[in-house]
Amino acid sequence: MQEVQRCIERCHAPLARAQAIVTAELEHFQDRLSRCSLQCSDQAKDALDSGGSEPRVRGQLDACLATCGEQHLRLVPAMAKKMRDGLASIQQ
User: Fold this and answer.
1) Distance of alpha carbon 21 from alpha carbon 82, whole angstroms
2) Which of 22, 38, 64, 92 is deepest in the core (most CB within 10 A)?
3) Residues 5-48: pLDDT tens digits?
4) How far is CA 17 from each of CA 28, 44, 47, 59, rounded to the nearest angstrom?
């Protein structure tokens, strides 16, 4: 029974490492995107507090958020490569 348990643990270990690699990369990406969107929100709030009109500030906020999205989409290939490299190291 103990041998079966050790076998299960050995088989599960690579999967757990793979899951940790993917989870860490996705969390890092999400944190960066969240910080960018929070910065856009802060800028919009500051603009409103300075007397900016709501439609103009809304347009600026939308543009800022679109820029965040575009910038982070460009990061996806590098993030995917980093995950692939990390997963490949598990198999070796």
Assistant:
1) 9
2) 64
3) 898 888 899 999 999 999 999 999 999 999 999 999 999 999 99
4) 17, 41, 45, 43
Angle at 40 between CA 28 and CA 73, to 5 degrees: 45
Structural domain spans, the chain: 1-89
Tokens of 12: 């599960």
Would you call 91 exposed, middle or buried from its count of C-beta atoms within 10 A (0-12, 13-18, 19+)? exposed
CA–CA separation, 69 vs 33, rounded Å?
8
40: helix, coil or strand? helix
Measured between alpha carbons, how far is 42 from 36 in angstroms, rounded to an integer? 10
Residues with Cβ within 8 Å of 6's Cβ and at least 6 positions away in sequence, in order, are none
The amino acid at residue 53 is S
Residue 40 CA to residue 91 CA, distance in Å, equals 41
